[in-house]
Design brief:
It is a single chain. With 365 residues, the chain is α+β, with helices and mostly antiparallel strands. It has ten helices and 14 strands. Helix content is 29%, strand content 16%. The strands form three sheets. The protein has an eight-stranded mixed sheet. A four-stranded antiparallel sheet has the order 6-11-8-9, with no helix packed on it. The structure holds 2-oxoglutaric acid and fe (ii) ion (FE2). Keywords: Iron, Metal-binding, Oxidoreductase. InterPro entries: DIOX_N, IPNS-like_FE2OG_OXY, IPNS-like_sf, Iron_ascorbate_oxido_reductase, Oxoglu/Fe-dep_dioxygenase_dom.
């Protein structure tokens, strides 16, 4: 039996970072927590841009990059990346494919309605979800699918029988032609970037570079493409493209359409900071499970999407998680006498299930 659920929106070299050039002394395992206390996190008014070209470079290059990422995660919880290596053709193709897909008649798209398909996959029509319970509905339509080889192996029953949310066999629209290929090409490219980011997050946390590798091997990293229609005239703040929320896996990689402002991140002064599209970049935001791993030393930022541009706006998010059986618990370097663990250990699978159930309780508008 497959799960029915709301499509959701929304995880070294063992070397201490103390040798790096930065203003805060980091010299022992409690230092992540100490530095969080010093930094006054969350008072940002812009989103940092980080070039990850050297993510597979020398040890020093990786350390420097991990340090930049650590600061961004502690202060903001989101950052742009350049040097991610995803070709613009790959991005252009998925962009064209999703535009063509969303312009199909509603009846055609509803053939893959997620409540019929199950496992949170398939099509979500406008106002079908309401991520922020104080809102009236999310003004978006989306299409979601999870892991699949580009050329499927014959008789692959393993993934077909997987009934975890976002797992199992994907469903694909019959049109536009090439949709599946464009979708999967981008998805696979984004997975490679995510793998690199897991290494950098581990280094940023003073953990071995491969710390998250075995913990993420069987995770369902799912992807969703979205269209946000424009909101013109007086805008009801309780019905925006995607209401205020945090993502609940480990982190998200987002491609947003160039030139159209919609994504905003909330800072600790409760001001919405625009994540203005920057050509060639992707946006990375920390999600709740990495927040829990780090005892909130890494911020899982509240964000939303509001499209007041006057035209449709498209985006694509890939959500990176953990294997279901991995215990998510604050790591020792993020705990100190002043900052005891804020969270009980919980398996990634249970955590995800709870969040999905909470979304059900919030109901649809
Ligand atoms: O489309 C966007 O800009 C944000 C998407 C998002 O936050 C999500 O899907 O969780
Ligand atoms: Fe999100």
């Amino acid at each position: 039996m497959r799960n029915d659920c709301l499509p959701l929106v929304g995880s070294g070299f063992g070397r201490s970072l103390s040798g790096l050039r930065h203003p805060i002394a980091l010299s022992c395992r409690a230092t992540m927590a100490d530095s969080a206390a010093i930094r006054d996190p969350g008072t940002f008014d812009s989103i940092p841009v980080i070039d990850i070209t050297n993510a597979n470079g020398t040890r020093d290059q990786k350390s420097a990059l991990a340090f930049e990422i650590k600061n961004a995660c502690m202060e903001v919880g989101a950052f742009y990346i350049t040097g991610h290596g995803i070709h613009h053709e790959t991005i252009d193709s998925v962009f064209s494919a999703m535009k063509a897909y969303f312009s199909l008649p509603l009846e055609t798209k509803m053939e893959l309605y997620h409540k019929r398909v199950g496992n949170c996959q398939g099509y979500t029509p406008l106002l079908d979800t309401n991520i922020d319970p104080s809102n009236r509905g999310d003004l978006l339509e989306g299409f979601a699918a999870g892991w699949e080889e580009l050329i499927p192996e014959e008789n692959d029953e393993t993934s077909r029988n997987d009934d975890r949310p976002k797992a199992g066999t994907n469903v694909w629209p019959l049109e536009p032609a090439g949709f599946r290929e464009a979708y999967l090409n981008y998805y696979h490219a984004a997975l490679a970037v995510g793998k690199t980011l897991y290494h950098l997050f581990a280094l940023a946390l003073d953990l071995p570079e491969t710390y998250f590798e075995d913990k993420t091997k069987e995770s369902v990293h799912d992807m969703r493409t979205v269209r946000y229609p424009p909101q013109t005239g007086p805008v009801d703040d309780r019905m925006v493209g995607l209401g205020a929320h945090t993502d609940f896996k480990c982190f998200t990689i987002l491609w947003q359409e160039p030139d159209i402002q919609a994504l905003q991140v909330l800072n600790s002064e409760r001001r919405w900071i625009n994540v203005t599209p920057i050509p060639g970049t992707l946006v990375v935001n920390i999600a709740d499970q990495l927040g829990r791993w780090t005892n909130d030393v890494f911020r899982s930022p509240v964000h939303r999407a509001v499209n007041r541009s006057g035209v449709d706006r498209y985006s694509t998010a890939v959500f990176f998680g953990m294997n279901s059986d991995v215990q998510v618990e604050p790591i020792p370097s993020c705990i100190s006498p002043d900052q005891p663990p804020k969270y009980e250990p919980i398996s990634a699978g249970d955590y995800e299930r709870k969040r999905i159930e909470a979304m059900f309780r919030q109901g649809t508008p």
